[in-house]
Design a protein that fits this description.
The complex is a heterodimer of chains A (80) and B (267). Chain A is of the alpha+beta class and 80 residues long. In chain A, 21% of the residues lie in helices and 26% in strands. Chain A contains two helices and five strands; from the N terminus they run ββααβββ. In chain A, strand 3 and strand 4 (53-55) form a beta hairpin. Chain A is globular. The relative contact order of chain A is 0.30. Chain B is of the alpha/beta class and 267 residues long. Chain B contains nine helices and eight strands. In chain B, strand 2, helix 5 (83-94) and strand 3 (99-103) form a beta-alpha-beta unit. In chain B, helix 4 (40-50) packs parallel to helix 5 and helix 4 (40-50) packs parallel to helix 9 (192-211). The chains are: A alpha+beta (80), B alpha/beta (267). The interface between A and B is large, with 24 and 48 residues.
Amino acid sequence: MIQAKVFGVENCSNETILLEATNIEELMDKISKKFDTVLIDRLRSCAVIVNNEYVMELDRIKMKLKDGDDVLILSPIIGG
Amino acid sequence: MKDNQISRYSKQIILKEIGIKGQQKLLNSKVLVVGAGGLGSPALYYLASAGVGTIGIADFDTVGLSNLQRQILHFTEDIGRKKVDSAEEKLNRLNPDVKIIKYPFRLNDLNIEDVIREYDVVIDCADNFQARYLVSDCCYFLKKPVVEGAVVRFVGKLMTIIPDISPCYRCLNPIPPKDGIMPSCADEGILGAVAGIIGTMQALEAIKILIDFGETLSGRFLLLDGISMKMNEVAIHRSDTCPICGKHPTIKELVSYDVKCKNKAYL
């Protein structure tokens, strides 16, 4: 089970979500289905943090998720 | 230092990390705050009260009624005034030691270098992509430390960038998001207290850089979730492929972006 939390994306509550996923794309797909399917592009524009480590854009595709991983999906935040 | 200054700053002068030497450094320091809004207000209050000698404020905007819920430098009677004028007045009353320099215009690729060049540290409290990329790129080129803060709803984010040492803004966000993906900034809510926390932390980071003590948020960022009142510390690394500070930089001069937000009708 992956523990995920979305930060700063409209229509997504920021409660912790528990779901099964083996990679980040699958995780984002499941989250967008849970909240609002039109949000998939918005989720893809977000930063991904796995176990408090920032995942670089290029590593995102090849990264595998494992049971117990803690994933934060963070919108580009610019408000001041 | 004058007697009344020693008395004014006594509670921080007795801190061993600061002392008379640190206080003198602050009084001789110059900090630029970009944006005198929700983040800029608390940051400016604490920089001025701590006795940062010269504070630059860049903001082209005027005070509006809907600003007052979070932009605590501005009062009801300031509506319609330039934010830099309203800010200057309050900060002068708070601490006449501080010299305020105002930049009441929009920063762009042609004018920003002349502004930033004058300062030791920059605090980024802007509210749009264009300013954030411009400020962080310019600080990288001029080798100025920048303290980045950002907020939305109950979420806050904070990081400090020491050029060529920390990961830079573009290491994490190589290019701005595509047009039409981000919701309009005007449509996103924010609770004032969340901006207050992050803006205050930005002032603290700047003071540590200026005096040179403690550990800054270099190589990590803080993520605050005000709803659960939990904070995450996220490890970040410099990117070899970063377009500005990577091995083969492709950005060698300032670029102006214009990111179009999503039309409200589609929200």
